[in-house]
Design a protein that fits this description.
Largest sheet: none
Shape: globular
Number of helices: 6
Number of strands: 0
Number of domains: 1
Structural class: mainly alpha
Distance between the termini: 35 Å
Order of helices and strands: HHHHHH
Helix content: over 70%
Strand content: under 5%
């Protein structure tokens, strides 16, 4: 593989890592919306839109903050959440700056790619965990894969 092809592969994996971060952020916003319904803070569609507009502007750290302060969450899970936050921040703020010199060599590109693979694995697992939490919480409100599929079908939007 040429250096250019290796860099394209690296950029693709970087994109996948950022994709998983955005999935986590989306699921956290979904959790806060469901929690707002559960607490009676959102009774109408306009309430949900208002709450959503507040939460969707927050960073991953801001979305995780209430979890980090909770007495109901174990320290191990808080460590897991902090690890996710740090990986996201490293990706967005430091990854390419720290890899600049290494990317000039094949060994450096392979090292960077390996590092991205490891980050992606953690982020994918976190995303799946949050997706399952959202699904379980949603069931309390009658939100299931079947009801989502039915609504999407009514709108003519494919859902799988």
């Amino acid at each position: 593989m040429t250096a250019e092809e290796e860099l394209k592969e690296l950029y693709a994996f970087f994109g996948e890592a950022v994709y998983w971060v955005q999935c986590i952020e989306y699921d956290l916003v979904s959790l806060w919306l469901l929690d707002s319904i559960h607490q009676g803070l959102a009774n109408k569609h306009c309430d949900l839109k208002s709450i959503e507009s507040i939460w969707e502007k927050k960073t991953l750290g801001s979305l995780l903050f209430p979890f980090m302060k909770s007495n109901f969450i174990t320290n191990d899970f808080k460590y897991f959440l902090e690890n996710i936050r740090q990986k996201r921040n490293y990706l967005v703020h430091s990854f390419f700056m720290e890899q600049t010199v290494g990317l000039q060599t094949e060994a450096g590109r392979k090292k960077a790619l390996y590092e991205l693979h490891e980050i992606i694995q953690v982020l994918r697992e976190a995303s799946l965990l949050f997706r399952n939490i959202v699904k379980e919480f949603g069931k309390e409100f009658g939100i299931t894969d079947e009801t989502i599929q039915e609504q999407m079908s009514k709108l003519g939007i494919p859902y799988s």
